[in-house]
């Protein structure tokens, strides 16, 4: 038997270019139904019946793709894994009665060894047209649920391109957000309105300094000995409202028309000019 020769490195199999030898078969060859063969490192490799000038398709488990193929005889046999990473390897003998071995390495690191035998001179005219590989060793089965250890160059390039495109999209989004934020900051002062009125004497006694609003919030600033309660007045009825308070600043998540601050016996009413009183 000739020494194994590597056929595939990462992205695809080398297709033998030697012209097919002319040959005659004693009887027509007939394809078998697809079959499954079990492969184990501790057992003799299964024998695959190949037909002269006929293609036998070797199929890896659904979780795997072909990463590399090694074969003993690349002169009398053609091995083709296509031009993209897939589960399939095509095998075709070019001479009668030939034998060789083939070793398929998957992207998960599993290794599958098969014996190939050309059978055109056998009494049985059937050859294996499609062979599905099934690993029986536990380590090989465990690898099926893990991430691939070999990544075809084409897929690696695509992953790099996808990552670069995602990064560019993220940068573009950040740039758009920065531009939007800058525009908002530049226009924000014009959205502030200081149109509230209150008793300034009472306000000074309580510590109230200013009240204003933008298109979403109402703000009250002051220097308070204690934090006064904040009420909104609607239709003459007061109600406590939610607000954030930090460093003397009330931030109310709504636009107020009328309300008041109160602590103890001190109370400061306020209202927007043009709002209801």
UniProtKB/TrEMBL annotation:
Keyword set, alphabetical order: Signal
Signal peptide residue numbers: 1-22
InterPro entries: Conjugal_tfr_TrbG/VirB9/CagX (IPR010258), VirB9/CagX/TrbG_C_sf (IPR038161)
Full protein name: Conjugal transfer protein TrbG/VirB9/CagX
Organism whose genome encodes this protein: Granulicella tundricola (strain ATCC BAA-1859 / DSM 23138 / MP5ACTX9)
């Amino acid at each position: 038997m000739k020494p194994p020769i590597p056929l595939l490195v990462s992205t695809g199999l080398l297709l033998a270019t030697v012209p097919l030898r002319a040959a005659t078969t004693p009887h027509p060859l007939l394809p078998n139904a697809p079959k499954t063969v079990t492969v184990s490192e501790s057992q003799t490799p299964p024998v695959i019946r190949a037909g002269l000038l006929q293609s036998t398709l070797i199929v890896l488990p659904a979780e795997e793709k072909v990463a590399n193929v090694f074969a003993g005889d690349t002169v009398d046999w053609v091995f083709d894994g296509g031009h993209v990473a897939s589960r399939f390897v095509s095998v075709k003998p070019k001479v009668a009665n030939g034998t060789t071995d083939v070793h398929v390495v998957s992207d998960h690191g599993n290794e599958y060894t098969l014996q190939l035998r050309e059978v055109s001179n056998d009494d049985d005219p059937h050859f294996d047209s499609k062979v599905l590989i099934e690993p029986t060793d536990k380590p090989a089965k465990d690898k099926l649920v893990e991430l691939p250890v070999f990544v075809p160059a084409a897929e690696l390039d695509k992953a790099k391109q996808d990552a670069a495109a995602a990064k560019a999209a993220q940068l573009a989004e950040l740039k758009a957000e920065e531009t939007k934020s800058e525009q908002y900051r530049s226009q924000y002062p014009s959205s502030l309105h200081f149109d509230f009125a209150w008793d300034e004497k009472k306000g000074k006694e309580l510590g109230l300094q200013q009240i204003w609003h933008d298109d979403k919030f109402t703000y009250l600033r002051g220097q308070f000995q204690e934090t006064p309660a904040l009420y909104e007045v609607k239709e003459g009825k007061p109600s406590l409202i939610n607000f954030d308070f930090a460093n003397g600043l009330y931030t109310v998540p709504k636009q107020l028309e009328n309300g008041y601050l109160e602590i103890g016996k001190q109370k400061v009413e306020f209202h927007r000019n043009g709002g209801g009183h």
